[in-house]
Amino acid sequence: MNSMISIKSISQVHEFFGLPRPKHPLVSVLRIGDKVADVDFGDHIYVIDLYQVSLKVGHISHITYGRTSYDFEEGMMMFTKPTQTLKFENVQGTQNNAGWTLVFHPDLLRKSELGKIIEQYTFFSYDVREALHISDEEKETLNNIIFKIEKEYNQNIDRHSQDLIVSNIELLLKYSSRFYDRQFYTRTNLNKDVVTQFEEILSNYYNSELQIDNGIPTVKYCAGQIHKSPNYLSDLLKKETGRSALDHIHFHIIEKAKNMLLGSEDTVSEIAFHLGFEYPQYFGKLFKSKTGKSPTDYRLAN
Do residues 145 and 172 lie in contact, with contact meaning Cβ atoms separated by under 8 Å? Predict the structure, then answer.
């Protein structure tokens, strides 16, 4: 069994890599190369209670990080949030590991507006295969922001330091979100195939009557069938169709419910159970929220 290593602070990160003490207790930029590139991560699982934003340039595995023929090749970005479990590959040699990693503690954001909305940056929950692939121009934009963050914490810390650092982190995330939108757009032909697969998964789920034992299909289940993370799949569908993965599931269920309400004499409770609902009340609430009518009223009106 792999042993687990927990890292809870910026100081622990610096100590792990054999770096000097951090200039700021809550944020640091690690330049990949030298000691950082040559660290032996061992056969361990790491739990890091920090946010991480990483840029890799140079030789990058297109299979591991999901690069397609539609993507740029100049750099790759990954995002992780606190408490995620990570397993690192040992790749020696700085020529294959240029770039940087921004690490920051959740406490840095506690009293900021970014702290209230950071969960909206769903790419922190994407899988490694769903990395962001960026151009040289995009890379330069991000590098300039990272330089400003480094410059800010390397000078004397004052009452403005934290606000300026957090503002630059938020700017970094906004640009990352913009670049992910661009990546979804350039991959649109591939993404349409995913939309089709998703619809087929929902149809097959009910045709196989999996809902009888497992309940209504979940986003996690559907994402697993397509080998995507739930947040990535939902964001992809939202970009392509205007509806999230959960909205698609609900739409599929409601359409089946309408057919059953008008094409059978089953009671509303029987229909709810057949669709995979444990409680008919939840089915009735969902149906009314999507159609404006209760199941009974819909049946009577049609």
Answer: yes
pLDDT tens sequence across 213-241: 999 999 999 999 999 999 999 999 999 99
Indicate if 182 and 100 belong to the same structural domain: yes
Residue 289 token pair: 């929220």
Q: How far apart are CA 77 and CA 53, in angstroms?
A: 7
Number of domains in the chain: 2
- Residue 84 belongs to what domain range? 3-186
Q: How far apart, in whole angstroms, are the C-alpha atoms of residue 30 and residue 36?
A: 8
Residue carrying structure tokens 């809550």: 26
CATH number at residue 71: 2.60.120
Size of the chain, expressed as the number of residues it contains: 302
Does residue 93 surpass a pLDDT of 50?
no
Listed residue (260, 278, 276, 257) closest to 211, CA to CA: 276
Largest CA distance in the chain: 75
**pTM beyond 0.85:** yes
Strand segments, DSSP code E, in the chain are 3-7, 27-32, 44-48, 51-57, 75-80, 85-86, 98-104, 132-134
